[in-house]
Amino acid sequence: MSVAVTISIDAMGGDAAPDIVVEGVRMAHERLPHVRYLLFGDAPRIEALIARFPEIKGVCTVHHTDESISNDAKPSQVLRTGRRTSMWLAVDAVHKGEAAGVVSAGNTGALMAVSKFVLRTLPGIDRPAIAGMFPTVKGETLMLDLGANVDCNSNNLVEFAVMGEVYARAVLGLEKPSIGLLNVGSEDMKGNDAVKAAAAILRDGNLPISFYGFVEGNDICGGTVDVVVTDGFTGNIALKTAEGTVKLYSTFLKEGFKSSLLAKFGYLFARHAINKVRVRTDPRRYNGAMFLGLNGIAVKSHGGTDAFGFANAIGVAVELVTHGYNDRIRKEFDRLKPVDASPSQLAAGTR
Description:
The protein is an alpha/beta fold. The chain has helices spanning 19-31, 43-50, 75-81, 86-95, 108-119, 154-170, 193-204, 217-222, 232-257, 261-281, 307-322, 325-336, 343-348; strands spanning 5-10, 35-41, 60-64, 101-104, 129-136, 139-144, 178-182, 210-215, 227-229, 289-292, 297-300. α1 links the parallel β1 and β2. α3 (75-81) crosses α5 (108-119), α6 (154-170) packs across α7 (193-204) and α6 (154-170) packs across α12.
């Protein structure tokens, strides 16, 4: 029997909130009937939507607020004036122990700023990172950072590598995951100073992780390594490019099968195989990126997702809570520290 879990929801975050948020809760409830929800936002709108789905009325508690965070709001502004917004209140519910995790499809920068301010970071972590899964020819690859930190130095990249390695072992169950640094080439002389310095630390330092070396863009979906590490600027571009490529090929296939009568007949024979590919590459299945390094569970949903995607983001949060992710990553992170190393020395890769 599953243990009851409470998840707080920023009901006003996302392009189509609160509609897809409430419907996402309904879809998640079908798979996770033991989960309860605290929804923060415009109560009249949210309650009207919940009324359409009687099955979730008993597991939802709505907390009203008139304020929400726009997609173009600056994180600094939110930290000064956003304490009554749906996002802030949802994050604060985790800090107060009222919820075990929070899910939001709102402004990424604001969510990172609020989560870091309210929940704080785990010991030894300077900057949290957004981590997400990519489908590959071999299965799945974890990639971070996907947009939380645009500018990163070598210490930040080393921290990301450690957090990614711990996540891959503690949550994904990989015994000795391989780590790769995303670069413009695999040769040692290529890349900017931060990437080259991080590679030197990971290769020559005392951290007990399996460092593969540099990987390129085509290695991400090739499954060359288990964890791909990069700065948030590059990672976010890679993520959006992959999503756009999937949509592009989907459009090409639809147009191709509609181009002639013979092509339409061909689709009848190929549709089962095409559906398998579509399901495997559907970005909504991988929706729900974890903010690694926070002292609390916070999951970022894609702002433009639909209810199915938001339900998957809820599933990510519940899985992390159920598996005691933060407790495990604390223990695993401590295990990876070199003997007598301070948190700052860990980031620098020195004793």
